[in-house]
Structure formats: C-alpha cells, structure tokens
Predict the structure.
Amino acid sequence: MTEAERVTASPAAAPIATDGAPRRRNPEDTKERLLDAAERLFADRGFEGASLRAVTQAAGTSVSAAHYHFGSKEALLVATIRRRTEPVIKARAAQLDALERRAGGAALPLEEVLEAFLRPIFAERARPDRGDDFRRIAARLFSDPPPIIAALKREVFGRTAARFLDALARALPDKPRQEIALDLQFLVGVMVHVTAGHLEDFPTPDGWPSLSGLPDEVVLDRMIQFVAAGLRAPARSHS
Amino acid sequence: MTEAERVTASPAAAPIATDGAPRRRNPEDTKERLLDAAERLFADRGFEGASLRAVTQAAGTSVSAAHYHFGSKEALLVATIRRRTEPVIKARAAQLDALERRAGGAALPLEEVLEAFLRPIFAERARPDRGDDFRRIAARLFSDPPPIIAALKREVFGRTAARFLDALARALPDKPRQEIALDLQFLVGVMVHVTAGHLEDFPTPDGWPSLSGLPDEVVLDRMIQFVAAGLRAPARSHS
DNA sequence: GTCTATAGTTGGATAGAC
DNA sequence: GTCTATCCAACTATAGAC
C-alpha cells in the first residue's frame, strides 16, 4: 500500500457537522470547532498521526487559523485535553466536598468516595453538547508520547490524587497507606480502560454476551462494586 | 519552541548498547537490534512520533536495512509487538493447561486462574536478555492509532479471552456470564495500567509512600487479591 | 546484507493580503 | 480573524553500488 493510498483509505476527514447547511465563517466558534475536530482526530489517530492540516480541514478552517487561535499544534492538544479534564476535576472536588460535609467527622462511606471519583468522568463522557469523542482522549492522556503530555498527566492526576488518597484512608482506617496508594492505581487502570471505550472495542467471544450496549449506569455500578471489594480485600498473610 | 529545538531536546537518540565497544556490522543480529530500538522508541514516542530514521540510527543501521528486513515501518511495529506478545500468550495457555489438568473436573481455584493470566506478563516484563522496555509497548497496543493495531489487538486478545472467560466461569459457577465478561475487562484495565509502568510514572503525593520501588512480586500478589475480591463481589440488588 | 543517494510527499509554521 | 501562498525540514520508500 502506498502512502497516498493509506491516507485516503483512512476515513474521518469528514467535516464536523455544523447543523444544517455547510455554513462557514462564524466569527468566534471557530475555536470551538477546532477543539471538536482536534479531539476527534487526536483520539482516532494520535497526536503525531493527526496532521494539523487534517484537523483544520475537518473543522472547516485553515492551518493559519489554528495557529492564530492556539499558537502551535502542541498548544491545541493541551487545550483539547484541558477542556475535558477541567470539569471532571472540579466535579470530583465538589462531590468530595459534599461528602465530607455530610459525614462530619465520621468515617466516609467507601462506595460514595468511589462514586465521587468515577461518576464525573462518566458524566463528561455522556455530554451530548460537545463532540461525543471524549472516549479515547483519556486513554491518550495516559500513553501518548511525552512532549507535554507527561507533565499534563502528572498535573491532572496530582490535583486529584492527594484528596482521594486521604478520603480512601478515612474510609478504610485500618488499611496500610502503601496498599491504599497501590489500590488507587488499580482503580485508575480500570477507569482509564473503561473510559477509553475498550468495552466497545473488544467484542466478546462467541457464546458470551456483548458488552457494547451496556448502559453507563450499569457499568459504573459494577465498577464501584468491583473496586470497593478490591479495596476491602485484606493483604494476604504470606503463605 | 521551534521544531528543531523540540527534536533535539528529545533524548533517547542514543544507540542501543551493544555491550562494550561500539562494534557494528554483526551479520544477523541487526534484525534483533532493530527490534530493540523500535521497541524503545515506539514506546517512548509512539508509532508516528518515532521516525524510522531515529529507530535505525539508534540501532546503528540504516533505513534501507530496516526495509530489507521488515519491508515497511508498519511491519516493523507488528514484529516488535509480536515478539513480546507471543511468549505471553503461550505461557498463559500453558499455565492454564496445567491448572485444568490438575483440577480434573473440579472447580478451578480463582486465584490460580488469575495468576495464570497475570504472571506471564510480569515474567516477560522482567526478562533481562531483551531490552527492558516491554513496559509501555503493552499500553500502546491498547491506545495507539488504528492502522494495523486495532486488528492486532483483537487477535491477541481474542486468542486468550475465550479460554479465560471459560476458566473464570468454572471458578465462579454462580456468577452471571455478562458480569464475568465485564469484570474481565476491569482486570485487563488493571493489567495494562500496571504493565505500562504507570506506577513509576505517577509519583505519590507528599506524605504517601512511593510505589516506584515495589518488587514485581508484591504488586502481582496484591493485584491478584484485589481482582479476586472484585470478581467475587456480588451484584448489588438494586437499591 | 548493508550502504549512499535520491525520489517524491507531507509535515508545521509563517508572511502578507484582505 | 481568516484566507492563500510559500518556506523548508523531515518523512517513508526505493534504486543501485558494493
């Protein structure tokens, strides 16, 4: 396959739907359309795999418009990710605040701590007003090449991790702190895998019920049960 | 930052260590050196982010040598991934075979099924003879752009999933099959996250013990406890 | 089997008109 | 603010000498 064939074979060069006629040249929401297109293409092809030209074409603009609004391709990526992560981080903090207020000085209920961590990301995923490709953007955040991503990742994670580690420690006072930290990483693994949409990507083998149609609420529920049980599981006394 | 600065700022153009003097021109292991370099650079920068030139330079060869041995950049990626996944798939099957033989017709012990699934990937990760960057290659397999990766991913997963789903069903006879399938995805999420090396990538906040020095055996042990408890957790009767 | 040299594209970024 | 036109560096892949 030649390079030209490979590129044209790749789909998704379709422009972002701008509800109705192919009207162009809206003054301010060009920025928004660029973010939508970038989100979809970065998620589909990766940062280096999605050219700025492809992104701007899908957004119905030009390369220079993107440079005008964002300054560089990297900056566009950062803006794309921040648009999604900011509301999640804030919603998590808000839910945790409410939870701690309600509990007063008492131990926090584990399942509710987990829900405060997990529900916001599902909520963001399901928002219909913005492109619905939040999906793999979260997974990319975890595995895309380092340039700025590594720093972004740590910042995003760091802003939430400390609070949730403390909350988990309050929910499970007898659990060793290192085990809490390790189990939180397991939880993050589950979250990323599900958020990234891998449930839809891996068809179950013949004879097994499909997972791709499962409502978010069912998946979220089961995640909480699964992870709560894991967190409560005592360390094995060395056999 | 200019493009030139960004590129030169990026490290890891160092050649693969060929134990001792910078001896070149070994007849056959050029292929091996190319795979080592490709593994490291694809893992660090992603498939599109790591140019063939960078890979061949790190391997101490030329672009055309890579084409001679593999035919294309994509084929090199596939070979890189297969070299790691093949032994894991085979080891998993072997451990499961042994387990089923030992159990006869009886129920399989859950923890041992999980160990058959998880230990081989840790073993591969720890092999010193090949470059030690198995790490993020597994994560890439799950989130890198589609060209051939999507197909590869399904093939690799499919060859193991059916057998493990059956084994889990034999270990937990009362568990609904859809719940087993869903929980297996959670397990995969944990596995990918840990294998990808994210434990080392996310420094724990101040006041929390670091995870980066943890021996593989400790992590594997805790993973099995965590996931086993999750799998055993009963579905919540809808509140 | 490995090299040098080169072909032919495509990439991000910018200048300057409007 | 958005466009067209252009710069030039970097890419994959191949041809052909050795």
Notes: Residues 2-3, 25, 27-28, 30, 61-62, 64-65, 68-69 of chain B lie near DNA strand C (CB under 10 Å from a C1').
